[in-house]
Each structure stands twice: as structure tokens, then as C-alpha cells.
């Protein structure tokens, strides 16, 4: 790693922020600042980031990979992440939302400990998805409907779905496979079987999309801003689509306390993984073979990550096993 002479602008901003933070003990703040300065130095040297507001999860994931390559213990890396989140919580108007550790494991195919973190089931109930579609139709919001088709019927992440281009849609219609490219969170290209629902959506939308254009991103609009619009939209209507069935699905019990996972776009990937597993098992595939196919569709190398989506030993699959 190339090192700069003297503190970088990012390090200076980090020190300035910590001078004004009063939460936590002095010892904790000092430890956190040391960890955050290491991260700031990494971001500046590796990505030339000079404004702390521009730090995003890609930088965090790359830092995790670098620390792991240097044989840093998983507990230390988790402490690093806690410190970085502490810092980012005090940044005014950050441009990006930092994903949780669970989301980082899922989306970047990383392992922070010996076993994947398990946040509980986050799948949508069928009636919640139906209510979501109806609410979108009632207000004429058709982009979120079409984006959701890619998420729930092909397992795409929200960024992958929103970034869909005319070229990708045309390729999928020709080959029956959808090619996820650079928009993949972990940078790993993959091909996903084209679903009938996505096929109908592409055929309907393509006449409206110019050559070289995107299906859901306006001309000159940044991808992350289009994704933010969809995230904001779901947050606004979330309360209208939650059902008792969905709450029972997403409930978690930890240390005698009960929590319920929120409805998120990523939850549609849970729905996809569980539906695909059920379909494959009913079609005669072995559990391990079905798990391997779902892993490939989701874009993960490790089968253990699939357990996050379907539960250990498939416990989220309605006892189909």
C-alpha cells in the first residue's frame, strides 16, 4: 500500500470530528479514533477519498478484505467496523448509507467470523408483496414494480436491478440468461436464468428505452441516486404493506427479547432464494444440489452464505424438507 507523507485530508477530518464527539468514555473514543485513522489512511491511499462524506460500503468491504489478508483476527475487524460506524454516525449529511455487517457478508460474499451472521428471516410474505404491487399501481409508481420483479423472480440486488440496461435486457431475451456485470456489489459477474416475469417486463419496457440507455435510471442520473429513490419509496410505503403473516415470518428472538426485521428490498432476495429452493426440491433436486444452484444465482461462492437466506438446514422453507 502506498503511503502519503503527513496526514491526509481524510485523517484531518477524522481528528476534527473526534475532537467534538462527547459520547462514550475517553478511552473508548481514543481507541476508536486510532482505528478510524487507519481506515481513513486506507481510503485516501487506495481510493483517493478526500471527503469523509464520500465514504461508502465498498470502501469498508475492501478494508475488511485487506485486513483479512494481513491475518487480522475477526474480532479485531469487527471492532474496527464498530469504530468506523461510530465515526460515520457523527458525519453530517453523508452521501451513502453504510450497510450492516450482515448485509456486508451477504452482498460482498465475506465472512466476518467463523460462521455467517444470521439476522433471521427477512423474506416478504406473499400478501405483503401483493399489497406492495397494488399500492404502487394506485399511485402510478411502475418503476418500483418492475424493479421488484427482477429482485423477487431472479434474486437481483436492488442496485443490480436498478442499474439494468437495454443491452442486458436484449441479451437476456436472446439467450434466456440475464448477465449481471460491474453493478454486482462484489464485482463478480454472473448469469441468472431469465424468469417469465422478467421476460414480460423487458418486452413491455424496451420500446421506451433508447439504445445505450437504462431501464430505471434517467439520463445523467447517478446510479446511487436512482437506488436511493427506490429505497426512500419503500420506506415511505412500508407501513402500508406489513402483514401479520410477514411479521411472524421475520420475527427474531434474542436473549429473551423479540425483534422483527423490517421489510427491505434485500428481503426480496430472501423470498427468491426460498422460492427457488422449494421449486428445485419439488423438481427432484437433492438439497445440496439445490443449494449450489441458489448460491450461483445469488452470486456467492460459499454455500454457507445461502443458509442466511434459507435458514440453517432450510428451516425457513415451511418444513418442506
Automatic annotation (TrEMBL):
<dbReference type="InterPro" id="IPR044068">
    <property type="entry name" value="CB"/>
</dbReference>
<dbReference type="Pfam" id="PF12834">
    <property type="entry name" value="Phage_int_SAM_2"/>
</dbReference>
<dbReference type="InterPro" id="IPR011010">
    <property type="entry name" value="DNA_brk_join_enz"/>
</dbReference>
<keyword id="KW-0238">DNA-binding</keyword>
<feature type="domain" description="Core-binding (CB)">
    <location>
        <begin position="8"/>
        <end position="92"/>
    </location>
</feature>
<dbReference type="InterPro" id="IPR024457">
    <property type="entry name" value="Putative_integrase_N"/>
</dbReference>
<protein>
    <recommendedName>
        <fullName>Tyr recombinase domain-containing protein</fullName>
    </recommendedName>
</protein>
<feature type="domain" description="Tyr recombinase">
    <location>
        <begin position="119"/>
        <end position="321"/>
    </location>
</feature>
<dbReference type="InterPro" id="IPR013762">
    <property type="entry name" value="Integrase-like_cat_sf"/>
</dbReference>
<dbReference type="InterPro" id="IPR010998">
    <property type="entry name" value="Integrase_recombinase_N"/>
</dbReference>
<keyword id="KW-0233">DNA recombination</keyword>
<dbReference type="InterPro" id="IPR002104">
    <property type="entry name" value="Integrase_catalytic"/>
</dbReference>
Amino acid at each position: 500500500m502506498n503511503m502519503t507523507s503527513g496526514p491526509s485530508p481524510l485523517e484531518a477530518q477524522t481528528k476534527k470530528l473526534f475532537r467534538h464527539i462527547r459520547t462514550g468514555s475517553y478511552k473508548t473514543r481514543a481507541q476508536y479514533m486510532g482505528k478510524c485513522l487507519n481506515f481513513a489512511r486506507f481510503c485516501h491511499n487506495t481510493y483517493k477519498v478526500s471527503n469523509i462524506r464520500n465514504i461508502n460500503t465498498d470502501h469498508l468491504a475492501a478494508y475488511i478484505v485487506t485486513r483479512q489478508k494481513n491475518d487480522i483476527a475477526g474480532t479485531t475487524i469487527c471492532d474496527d467496523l464498530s469504530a468506523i460506524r461510530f465515526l460515520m454516525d457523527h458525519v453530517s449529511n453523508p452521501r451513502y448509507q453504510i450497510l450492516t455487517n450482515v448485509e456486508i457478508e451477504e452482498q460482498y460474499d465475506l465472512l466476518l467470523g467463523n460462521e455467517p451472521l444470521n439476522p433471521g428471516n427477512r423474506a416478504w410474505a406473499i400478501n405483503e408483496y401483493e399489497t406492495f404491487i397494488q399500492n404502487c399501481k394506485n399511485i402510478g409508481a411502475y418503476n418500483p414494480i418492475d424493479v421488484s420483479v427482477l429482485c423477487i423472480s431472479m434474486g437481483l440486488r436492488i442496485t443490480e436491478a436498478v442499474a439494468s440496461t437495454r443491452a442486458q435486457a436484449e441479451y437476456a431475451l436472446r439467450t434466456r440468461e440475464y448477465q449481471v456485470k460491474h453493478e454486482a456489489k462484489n464485482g463478480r459477474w454472473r448469469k441468472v436464468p431469465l424468469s417469465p416475469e422478467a421476460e414480460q417486463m423487458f418486452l413491455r419496457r424496451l420500446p421506451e428505452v433508447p439504445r445505450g440507455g437504462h431501464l430505471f435510471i434517467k439520463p445523467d442520473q447517478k446510479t446511487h441516486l436512482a437506488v436511493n429513490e427506490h429505497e426512500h419509496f419503500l420506506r415511505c410505503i412500508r407501513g402500508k404493506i406489513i402483514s401479520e403473516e410477514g411479521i411472524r415470518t421475520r420475527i427474531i428472538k434474542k436473549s429473551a427479547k423479540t425483534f422483527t426485521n423490517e421489510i427491505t428490498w434485500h428481503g426480496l432476495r430472501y423470498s427468491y432464494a426460498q422460492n427457488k429452493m422449494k421449486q428445485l426440491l419439488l423438481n427432484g433436486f437433492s438439497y445440496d444440489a439445490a443449494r449450489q444452484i441458489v448460491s450461483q444465482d445469488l452470486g456467492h461462492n460459499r454455500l454457507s452464505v445461502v443458509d442466511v437466506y434459507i435458514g440453517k438446514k432450510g428451516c425457513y422453507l415451511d418444513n418442506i424438507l
